[in-house]
Structure formats: C-alpha cells, structure tokens
Amino acid sequence: MGFFLTFEGLDGSGKSTQLRKLAEHLQSQGLAITVTRQPGGTHLGDRVRGLILDSKTEHLDPRTELGLMFSDRAQCIAEVIAPALHGGNVVLCDRFTDSTEAYQGGGRQLGSEIVLRMHETMCGGLQPDLTLLLLADFDKSLARARRRNNRTAAAGQDEGRFEREDADFYRRVYDKYREVAGREPNRVVIIDGDRSIETVHREISDLVESKLRTAGVLPALPGAGVR
Ligand code: TMP
Fold first, then answer.
1. Fold (CATH) for 3-214
2. Which residues approach ligand 1 with their CB closer than 6 A?
3. Atom 3 of ligand 1, residue of closest alpha carbon
4. Per-residue pLDDT tens over the stretch 52-93
5. How much is the pTM?
C-alpha cells in the first residue's frame, strides 16, 4: 500500500533540492505525493526540531538527543506517514532512521544496536521501500554544510547545532552511512552527488519510476514483461 521513499545524506548533500524536484516530477505524472521531513513535519516535530538544531541548546546528552529524534519520528509516522501510506500515497521523507544511525549511532558514537532497537520499539520497524543516499565528496559536503549554516544564521534562523561539529564527527557519520548501504543493498541506493543538479535529478527520477512500476504504483510500460 503506497510507497515509502526516504532521502539521506550529509548536511549539504543536496538531498532536499532533489526531494523537491522529484516531488514536482511525480506530481506532474498525476501521483498523490506526501512530502515530510525529520526532524519536523508535524507541529510537535517542528518544536522538537527547533530544540535539537538550535545551537543555543547546550549539554544535550547523546541519549536525550536520540530519544528526541525518535519521539519526533513516532509522531510523524502516526500523524503523517502511516495515514498517507494507508491512503496509497507516495511518501517522500527527508531523513528517517538511517540519519539517526549515522548521526547518533556513528557521529555521537552510540553505536547501531541501540538505534535499531529503538526503531523497532518506537516505529514498529517501519522500513522505507527505497532509500536514496546522496553522497558527495566528503570535503565538499562539509564545506557546503558550513556555507549553508552561515546563510541560515544570516536569515535569522539558527539550525547550526550539528553543522558546527568537527570533521571527525562528520567522517563517522559518512562512514556509518556507507556501512548501512553495504548492509542493506536492496533498500539503500547510493547516488553520486558530485554531479549537476539536473544529472542527479534524471538518475533519481528514472530509478524511482522504475521502482514504482515494479511496485505497481505506476502502470507498467507498454510491452514490458513481454518476450
Ligand atoms: P536537515 O533536516 O536540514 O537535513 O538537518 C537536520 C539535522 O539533524 C542534520 O544535521 C542531521 C540531524 N539529524 C540527526 O542527527 N538525527 C536524526 O535522526 C535526524 C532525522 C537528523
């Protein structure tokens, strides 16, 4: 029922731009699309987002941070994702549990196990049908994240708590993402983010359309499956 697609990557990987372009593309094909993000995506989630990303939030224990991420996610599943999937929509979600495994499990060094166990408990083990992991060159991603942080700060928005982490933190996040992709090759597809926005968009839309046809969400192409 429906189709659950998540976007993952380091800050500055271009995933939010790609998500927006894909949503427009799929909408133009007449599909019912639900777009959401984590943290955020619900009224409560936006408040959690404000708290977790604000660089004025200090001394947050990594396990508290982990719990807040899952509280946000459980609410988003209950309020947005589950009803949309139930209604047959294609759900595009900007970050999901792989982010928690990469950032809290890897970056904060809590390890994967606690994250996967909490996922079972808090999210009923809900898994995306497909995850697009945008990975650009590590140094370029880091530079982009820092630039983005300066821009949002200049716009009066403070979402810099993660972006001010050092390169070692981001290296652990990056490595954990690659570990997840290696562990779950059927679900997680790595997309090379070091190309033009349009090139990446074409690769993503071709891949997603093909998965949606296989899942029966889009009709099969004429002649497909006929030998
Ligand atoms: P973004 O939504 O603008 O990409 O940024 C959200 C930030 O929150 C980003 O630095 C990654 C971080 N994050 C976690 O650390 N754990 C999580 O589970 C999620 C969803 C996000």
1. Rossmann fold (3.40.50)
2. 11, 37-39, 53, 69, 94-95, 99-100, 103-104, 162
3. 11
4. 998 888 889 999 999 999 999 999 999 999 999 999 999 999
5. 0.94
